[in-house]
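As a next step, the fold was encoded as tokens, giving this record:
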Amino acid sequence: MPQLALEGLRILDLTQVAVGPYATLLLGFMGAEVIKVESCSRMDISRGAARPTPQGEGLYPGGEPGERPWNRAAHYVHRNGNKRSLTLDLATAPGKALLLQLATMCDVLIENFRASVMDRLGLGYEALSQANPRLIYVKISSQGATGPERDYGSLGSTLEQTAGLASITGYDDGKPLMTNETFPDPVVGILAVGVLMAALRQRRQTGRGTCIDLAQREVTVAMLGEYVVDYSVTGRIATHTWRRRASIPARATICGSPSPSALTTSGAGCAAL
């Protein structure tokens, strides 16, 4: 059996909900050993309720929570396959000591708490790097580790608003709409994998780890590059472009063929394709 690219890499996964678990899911698919760490008093909220109500049964296969509903919620299972799991109470001295001990055995730690949480616990990059100078710390947060909004929390849906993505989605005569894919989560998760690859290369050269500060809002703004450039050059403020885009001819339509990439500048051209 061929060896996977990241076999032998061990990752301490303190992430929750979407963006972080998506990144560590991809790393697990690439062969890394991923150890997910949660607290018994506050587990990953995407697991759903420990005692589901009838209103929440739609989260589970067949609408049945089963005997272990915390392992059956669709959102959780989708992003947390191929991972080991353990619980630690990081608010206690034994829990902190165990996490530091685990850090000495791991190559990477990834978390997506609010920016100040790990420092308040005494488990920020400075403490972890003293325990393991080769550790790569990937810090994913809503607004980044510095600045006046560093302690703001968010979900991918709210980041679409704060980063400006919602200003260009929707219909011309309507309100801004969500993309319905919460792009800030999967896009930043994929980017986290990419920057980790760069950090691993750097560690191979220097022998030391590093801290990566990855702000979801900044990455989401980068998705709007063409609109930012357009405003800087023309002063034009982009509006809702759900149904059309300036980079596509005004009468372009997607044909009803099996190929979603088949485009023509008029509906009549579909028959020719």
Residues 184-206 form the longest helix (23 residues). Confidence is low (pLDDT under 50) at residues 248-255, 257-273.
